[in-house]
Specification:
- This protein has nine helices and 22 strands.
- By secondary structure, it is α+β, with helices and mostly antiparallel strands.
- The strands form four sheets. The protein has a six-stranded mixed beta sheet, with helices on one face.
- Strand 7, helix 3 and strand 8 form a beta-alpha-beta unit.
- Pfam families: Exo_endo_phos2 (PF22669), SKICH (PF17751).
- InterPro entries: Endo/exonu/phosph_ase_sf, IP5, IPPc, SKICH.
- Belongs to the inositol 1,4,5-trisphosphate 5-phosphatase type II family.
């Protein structure tokens, strides 16, 4: 279950609550992956420089919401106001590999990143998937510029070798503030059609729908029906369309589309797909806007999908577990084994994480798999962690194996308990008692007694 969010946040700060946006109260099964594409994140120079040094407020906000629910930030990419975040359930981590990010500027003839696209690609259970968040040029008359820019973004090449181009991925999701408008019709007809919920009257004049009929590079992209109000342009903190002097005509600027490569090949061959070829299916379960959010002049849009795929990668590359009882009173041992073809590296490491860890760098401590190795045979290897690095207060933790070659976590242990350091706790209790006795009021009452 995949949930994609696109939202032009208009330089605003995060709202108090995103429960409905992320469908956290849904009665169905929990989402497996969240993909969040934002446009117009505050990129004033002071904000942007601080965001480069630290996580930006939106990333921190979504991490704080999702990490207690068992999601980690898998990857992110930022280009000025464009931000793309991917969160995933822990259980899927060993099956997501070859994660890479890229961006393409299209503002000021490619020199400025206020417009363009950011992308994250990966191998998901052995299938190649790419997510692309775009912000295309505004205004009614710029349809051709939007199409030209998107064609340029589709030519985006990931820097590493052996990575397919965007259109060669098994699945490509395209979303963002695409800025396509409703042509020809006047503002009164558009608003009247919206008020009467007769959205179908406007579909044929939607610039993206029109372009899909004549532009070859768009024809393989699929979109769900636009059965929600146009998401632009609203007065802030309201569901009232633009009342300013400009009175912008409403439009479906915020969209989510997708493209499945084997369906495109099937169309070109004009033959039935065999059962072996039907390794991937994408089902749109929900395509809606969220009218309750008013921090910007756009309403967020979400697409909820079911992805079914025959796993080409079905067992973790690395299996690992803690040995014996863990506490900070002694050094501890980790056992792990890797599949025969696993490309290990000197720079691989095993991290100790709290079960609610937020991203791959959120470790408590780590051990280098080569430098800290204490035994090795054909079946398994052992690595030690120094007692001084183990949390004294204990708690629930997991171990993760990070592959430098694959740039991802390729193995994760079952959650386990670290016992509190009894010696240290007894010392702390004794010190607390001494400190209590030394307080003047307590000392006086003690002497009286």
């Amino acid at each position: 279950r995949l949930h994609i969010v696109t939202w032009n946040v208009g330089t605003a700060s995060p709202p108090p609550d995103v429960t409905s946006l992320l469908q956290l109260n849904s009665l169905g099964p929990a989402m497996d992956m969240y993909v969040i594409g934002l446009q117009e994140v505050n990129s004033r120079i002071t904000n942007f420089l601080s965001d480069l040094a630290f996580d930006d407020p939106w990333s921190i906000f979504f991490m704080n919401v999702l990490s207690p629910l068992g999601y980690i930030k898998l990857s992110s990419v930022r280009m000025q106001g464009l931000l793309l975040l991917i969160f995933v359930k822990h259980v899927h981590l060993p099956f997501i590999q070859d994660i890479h990010t890229q961006y393409t500027r299209t503002g000021l003839y490619g020199y400025w990143g206020n417009k363009g696209g950011v992308a994250i690609r990966m191998s998901l259970y052995g299938h190649t998937v790419c997510f692309m968040n775009c912000h295309l040029p505004a205004h009614m008359e710029n349809t051709e510029q939007r199409l030209d820019d998107f064609e340029k973004i589709l030519e985006m090449q990931f820097e590493e070798e052996n990575i397919p181009s965007t259109l060669d991925h098994d699945i490509l999701f395209w979303f963002g503030d695409l800025n396509f408008r409703i042509a020809d019709y006047g503002i009164h007809f558009v608003r009247e059609s919206i008020n009467n919920r007769r959205y179908n009257l406007l579909w044929e004049k939607d610039q993206l729908n029109m372009a899909k009929k004549k532009e070859a590079f768009l024809q393989d992209f699929i979109e769900g029906p636009l059965q929600f109000k146009p998401t632009y342009k609203f007065d802030l903190y309201s569901d009232v369309y633009d009342t300013s002097e400009k009175k912008r005509k409403p439009a479906w600027t915020d969209r989510v589309l997708w493209r499945v490569k084997n369906l495109c090949q099937h169309k070109s061959k004009e033959s039935e797909l065999s059962e072996e070829e039907q390794t991937i299916s994408v089902t749109l379960n929900n395509y809606i806007s969220h009218m309750g959010y008013g921090i910007s002049d756009h309403k967020p849009v979400t697409g909820t999908f079911g992805l079914e795929m025959k796993p080409l990668l079905s067992i973790p590359s690395v299996v690992l577990k803690p040995e014996g009882e863990w506490s900070a009173e002694h050094d501890v041992i980790i056992s792990y084994s890797a599949v025969p073809e696993f490309p290990s590296s000197t720079w691989d490491w095993i991290g100790l994480f709290k079960v609610t860890f937020k991203h791959v760098n959120d470790y408590v401590t780590y051990a280098w798999v080569k430098d800290d190795e204490i035994s090795s045979n054909n079946d398994s290897k052992q690595v030690y962690m120094n007692a001084e690095e183990i949390p004294n207060m204990g708690g629930e933790f997991v171990l993760c194996y990070y592959s430098n070659n694959m740039q991802s976590i390729v193995g994760i242990s079952q959650p386990f308990q670290i016992q509190p350091n009894r010696t240290l706790i007894e010392k702390d209790l004794a010190q607390e008692e001494i400190d209590w006795m030394r307080k003047p009021d307590n000392l006086e009452s003690h002497n009286e007694f």
